[in-house]
Amino acid sequence: MSHTKLIIEYNQHVHSALHCKHPCYIKITELLFMQTALNGIPIDREEKIEEILQIMADKYSRVLLRITQDCPKSALRISEETGIPISTVYRRVQKLQDVGVVRVSGEVTLEGKKRFLYQSKVKAISSKVAGEFINVEIIPNPPTSHKWGV
Question: Which superkingdom, per the lineage (predicted)?
Fold first, then answer.
């Protein structure tokens, strides 16, 4: 059974919303982007902040980052596991690579074909709005050393 968990700061205390019925909590399905950033890397450039916020707003980008966190995967496997059209997977991967939140590795199959594998560089993204300031932090996702997903 998978649980959705939202962590928020409320009255200077951190509260967990797992199974909470209190009305100040909301249910979310994308844990990846709603975690409280601990030891995150702050993003300083305005342009980069805008790109990260656009990624957070795009459901396909969120799914792609989530599904490639634990194991690098090919575009075909991502498409098969998520139902996202392969052309959309390639477009989103390119955008995520341009922003710098996906690492790309390649391998040559036994048949001599090149295959590219994609893995999220992001474990979590946190954003805070305070007045006219927006703070964005990224918790990095270290590369995996286990078998590549194909």
Answer: Archaea
Which region, left, alpha or beta, applies to residue 50 given φ > 0 means left and ψ of -120 to 50 means alpha?
A: alpha
Domains of the chain: 1-36 (no CATH), 44-140 (1.10.10.10)
pLDDT digits (tens, 9 = 90+) for 78-89: 999 999 999 999
pLDDT digit string, tens, across residues 28-80: 333 433 444 356 788 878 888 899 999 999 999 999 999 999 999 999 999 99
Cα separation, 36 vs 128, whole angstroms: 10
Mean pLDDT on 132-138: 87
The predicted model scores a pTM of 0.66
Rounded-to-integer distance, Cα 139 and Cα 136, Å:
10
Integer angstrom CA distances of residue 27 from 43, 57, 137: 27, 17, 22
Contact 121, 101 (CB under 8 A): yes
Of the candidates 120, 105, 103, 145, the residue with the CA atom closest to the CA atom of residue 64: 120
Q: H or E segment at 57?
A: helix 46-57
